[in-house]
Amino acid sequence: MAANVGPGSGGAGTERISEAELAVMEALWLTSPQTAAEVCDAVCTQRGWSIPTVKTLLSRLVAKGALATKPDGRRFLYTPRIARHDYVGTESKRLVERLFGGRAAPLFAHLAESEALTADDISEIERLLQEMKK
Amino acid sequence: MAANVGPGSGGAGTERISEAELAVMEALWLTSPQTAAEVCDAVCTQRGWSIPTVKTLLSRLVAKGALATKPDGRRFLYTPRIARHDYVGTESKRLVERLFGGRAAPLFAHLAESEALTADDISEIERLLQEMKK
DNA sequence: ACCTTACGATTACGTTTGTAATCTGAACGG
DNA sequence: CCGTTCAGATTACAAACGTAATCGTAAGGT
């Protein structure tokens, strides 16, 4: 029953979420709570998965403390225990840490160079910079 | 030349580099070529590794096509087959793809919010933006 | 009271990763 | 020549991951 968020504990979201697990999280971040079957509806065809796969991933995510469960009759409703916002922030920072020594500017330079920046991105970033200076 | 870089081939750097392997690559990006022992000098104490570990990682990186070897007497000299610049670019783009739907602006917003942006980063980014507009 | 069925739980199994120990063969010291 | 030593190569083995089949059980229909 959920109470336990992980062996070493440390709060929700301490443990790493794998690529496949992320797809499940995304579905639940989009709408939650959902049953396993509903999550499967959302991801199975897209990823070529079968229901057992989704159930395994759900269980692992619960074990990792990334999802909470609430019994609903005889099945479970799954809900994220960590906000997508937080997850994404942590992962972004991890990348900047790992690859750019914690400096964001070189990352930006790379994205610029590889044309991963659309015109919209650029003006949006300018806007954010303006705002930060206030 | 460059002939066979791996079973499925696809050019150097096609296969994913793991976290531990990355430490080895970093050492070789810093200075190369190096022998296994030299790489160990560079990373073993830092990561708490022993020489066999480094050798395993080197072998796996060679198998993945990320490193080239040149015999030097009875040992090997290892050299990166992919530039750090390229690796970092690919990984950055992958993150933006996976977490931000390919848009860089939200990533930037996250970094800004989490104070992962130093004053230096900000002015550097402004400079880059200026340059892009030309 | 059954039988089916729809759940979660348990088990499975190959691959990748982290972290090594051991084996094998060649070079070097004597 | 012969043993020690130092390479790379082979083997090891547990944890995490990707992907699932099977088991057990409780709910619902009849």
From TrEMBL, chains A, B:
It comes from the Bacteria. Keywords: DNA-binding, Transcription, Transcription regulation. GO terms for biological process: negative regulation of DNA-templated transcription. InterPro entries: BlaI_family, WH-like_DNA-bd_sf, WH_DNA-bd_sf. The keyword rRNA processing does not apply. The keyword Transport does not apply. One of its GO terms (molecular function) is DNA binding. It holds the Pfam family Penicillinase_R. Gene3D superfamilies: Penicillinase repressor domain, Winged helix-like DNA-binding domain superfamily/Winged helix DNA-binding domain. Belongs to the BlaI transcriptional regulatory family. This is CopY family transcriptional repressor. It comes from Aurantiacibacter marinus.
